[in-house]
Design goal:
alpha/beta; single chain; two-stranded antiparallel sheet; Rossmann fold; five-stranded parallel sheet
């Protein structure tokens, strides 16, 4: 990928070349959200709090890996992930949140929130992804489309609070019925149609699941946020994609 040439040039001659900028467009996982804890709202109703730790998210880890490989390069990270976001919403806000920074490479990752619309939302998800990719390419950015990890496969025993357990039940049902998998198939189709590299993290998680790994244990909120340790899988997979594309 051209991003590697830019990193190499900056690493060899920092004064003669501009910094490299990598953008990330996505939802809560991109944003750096981890645990979801039951909490009472200001009105005394049952709610929850989300733990944000962006320095442990995969975007920050990608920068660490690339700086290990290209230690003299300057790498700017634009994290345009927002908790609760979907692909259509990302398309609507990318001109404000991402394009002004002129990223040399942008990683796009959606599906966790989009899948809540069921099969009826797959077409809108696919179309939004392809539109995002086309806009980024027109702006001169390379693009990698990354699939997220699966949603929970069961209601975890450590998950507390009626609302969170009800959410987990719905997610686990979607997982069991193949609903989330159909969204990932749409994402793969979008990458193929737009001729961009696909970083299929979902496939890696499903391979673990099929070989007996309890993937729900690998979610920090037992719903849809990978643990800090598993963010390394995202980061390593992305860098591997850069070198293999």
């Amino acid at each position: 990928m051209k991003i590697l040439s830019l990193l190499n040039e900056k690493n060899r001659d920092a004064f003669g070349n501009r910094p490299v900028t990598i953008g990330f467009l996505g939802d809560s996982v991109t944003n750096g959200c981890f645990e979801v804890l039951p909490a009472m709202t200001a009105h005394g109703e049952e709610g929850f709090d989300v733990v944000f730790d962006p320095e442990r998210s995969y975007s920050a880890l990608v920068r660490k890996i690339l700086l290990t490989l290209y230690p003299k390069a300057q790498i700017n990270i634009i994290n345009a992930g927002i908790s609760g976001d979907s692909a259509p919403s990302g398309l609507a806000r990318m001109e404000r949140d991402l394009l002004p920074y002129h990223p040399d490479l942008c990683v796009v990752c959606y599906g966790l929130n989009d899948s809540g619309a069921g099969d009826a939302g797959i077409a809108a998800y696919h179309d939004a992804l392809t539109a995002i990719i086309h806009k980024l390419k027109q702006a001169g950015s390379e693009v990698i489309l990354m699939t997220p990890q699966p949603i929970c496969a069961r209601v975890h025993t450590q998950l507390h609070g009626e609302a969170l357990r009800a959410l987990a039940l719905g997610l686990a049902d979607s997982f069991a019925q193949g609903g989330f998998d159909r969204y990932m198939q749409a994402a793969r189709a979008a990458a193929e149609e737009t001729e961009i590299p696909l970083c299929d993290v979902y496939a890696k998680w499903m391979c673990m699941y099929e070989n007996g790994v309890d993937i729900t244990d690998l979610l920090s909120n037992y719903l849809n946020h990978p643990t800090r340790e598993m963010h390394w899988l995202f980061a390593n997979s992305l860098v591997e994609t850069m070198f293999r594309a």
